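Help! Submission page says 'invalid entity' but I think these are all valid:
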Amino acid sequence: MTIISNEIIQRCQHGDRSAFRVVVQTYQQMVFTLAFRLLCDEDEAKDIVQETFIKVWVNFPSYNPQQSLRTWIYTIAIRLCYDRLKQRMYLTPLPEEEDYFVEYISDDETDKPLENHELLAVIKSLVKNLSPKQRVVFTLTHLEGMSSEEVSQATGLDAAKIKSNLYVARKTIREQLKLLGYE
Amino acid sequence: MNKLDYLTHRLAAQQPQLMDADELCDSILDHLPPQKESKRFGLRHVLQVATSVAALLLLVLFIKQGQNIQAPREDVDYSHRLEQLQPDYSSIDPNMAPQEALREFTKVKSTRISISQLKKNPTL
């Protein structure tokens, strides 16, 4: 992961758009991946990328350079995704997406890169029974590899809530996998 | 590693591809609104706060000074009354019986007028 220099950050804080281009180019894939996994929708993920960087730009003069820029951008993106998730409670995968999911979990050995629509089908089917909060905690912990503390900082949820949401999320998914004969 | 963890591990390794990344980047840069003014505590904020505090202190100082300015003192001559402040013990005879002398002393002391009483009522 490229690290943005302090000079670029200072230039962004003073409204330099060409410096901001470097920031967008560096972190747009990271934000897209996060939003894609959380929202399970490619177009919405692109919207989140746009919204996130506009928010980052607008608030750049208030950004504290002692904080990691990556974490700051990440937190903004998570909150935007979470707000969207709360608006549409549950995901409903299409029948063909569910079929692909079954196929994917049955084939333990395949590590070939998935196309976007395939990856979307698997994630959507995996988290379909989770509430927005459970989905955020589960995705950040298991797919984004964040620690409990990082999830807490990004979502504003306390450690106990993260633990309980993660427990319920895992239990729900395991039951679903059991029904499919995977567990 | 249990099956759920294995599955999530496999999924975490998969990254979606952001198509038209350059186009998206251009679109973001084309729609940037004006930046918000910094909320961080910088030198400019320190100066602003210091100026406000100084102005407030000056105001308090002026008010205090205004309260300390008193009306010119009335030049009253209490000298003609000062002798009244001093009790006249001449009426106590050294040969008096102790009881009687004490009674006389108390009587004389009660006739004393204080400066504050005089100030309040100069006609005393």
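Support: the input was valid. A stray whitespace character was the problem, and the output above is from the cleaned input. Chain A touches chain B through 48 residues (CB under 8 Å).
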